[in-house]
Amino acid sequence: MSLLSRLFGGAAATAQSAVPVVQAQGGATAFHDLNDPRVIEYLRDGLTAGGMHVTVEQALRNTTVFRCVDLICSSVAMLPLNLHRETADGDFVKATEHPVQRLLRRKPNGWQTPFEFKGLMQYRALTHDKGAVALIVRTGSKPSALLPLNPDRVDVKIGDDFEVTYTYLRKSGGRVKLAPEDVFHLRGLTFDGINGISRVRRAAEAIGIALQAERATAALFKNGTFASGALKIPNELSPEAYERLKISWNERHQGAENAGSTPLLEGGAEYQAFAQTAREAQTIESRRFQVEEILRTFGVPRPLAMLDDTGWGTGIEQLSIGFVRFGLNPWFTAWQEAIGRSLLTDAEADHDAKFNPAALLNGTMKDQYDAFAKASGAGGHKPWMTPNEIRKLLNMPAHPDGNRLEAASGKAAPISEDTEADAAATKALAKRKPVETDND
Length: 440
Known about the structure:
Layout: H1 3-8, E1 21-24, E2 27-30, H2 37-45, H3 56-59, H4 63-78, E3 81-86, E4 92-94, H5 99-105, H6 114-127, E5 132-139, E6 142-149, E7 154-158, E8 164-169, E9 175-178, E10 183-186, H7 199-202, H8 204-223, E11 229-232, H9 239-253, E12 270-273, H10 278-298, H11 314-342, E13 351-355, H12 358-361, H13 365-375, H14 387-393, H15 420-431
Antiparallel strand pairs: 1-2, 3-4, 3-13, 5-6, 5-10, 7-8, 8-9, 11-12
Helix pairs in contact: 4-6, 4-10, 8-10
């Protein structure tokens, strides 16, 4: 029986256990069986101090968490990831004929694009303690597909002999043991060497408080009152006077078109505006603080989280560079080294997978052109890029004369041989009379 049949179909390896459902506050949490490691995790952790058991699905309802996860996953997914081979002269070229290059750049499996595959794996590496796991399907000895597995259905253990084993809990029942060489395991920082770290779990308290604050605000909008002030009248009004005052007030001050209008009061009436209560101010401040806590956990700068209290200017570029360097580069390294460990052999030590973060680090058009000018030797700089290398970065076709590495001389381009049009133009210019000026 093939590995794929053992994983996704065929006879069950062992009998299927019952699937209990544990009711948690804010929704139900389903466990695959009583040996599911999430059962122990649930019983051990319980509720947060804010009174919630924070799951990934619940955490993503918070807009700050969603923005952080979406930003990191989309950034990793959209960047080119290529397999390079080192040549005899020390240069690096794309290993276009290698099957791993096809998986990374064209078709990781039968239903996902590279963008979708990288985005899903990065999402799971961020939000699950086990990290992201994919089955490596091989044709002969070469990898031919990467099939992402739900990390909730994968149990990872390391034995006394330091042998790592992966056990997959099948949907149809039973378990299948996977050899480490058949698993592509992506994980970031790890505390035990085999599992990753869930950012959602580590920030569960901050996320739980943020979700509770959102619920409190929603309850206020649903059940609370939003009167901005009151009319204080010294004497009791008759029913007719009350109706007349109500109609007059609504006609003059109700609706967006009357915003900012000045009340005209009579009969000793006085308008008293309600001040913001300390409880309301504390709720607003608490929500702002929880946003900061969540951003700190994911390593996302405030402007990239679309906070409107930060202006977009020159400082944003430096913050974006810092995000790439300290927020994304660790994940780039995790991807590249996981590919080297699981998809390449020892005999392929001259191959290396590399992300290209240039798309995230590009400055303005002017900054790019200034850099290209210096790279080609303008302004007395020593050239280190050929024109065709620059044109390639700009997605322009190569030029026949663009492979030479030489400094710009500043001399005028040589005049081409006269054509019939050139000769006609020269003859017409010769017949023109000189222009009279006031100069001697």
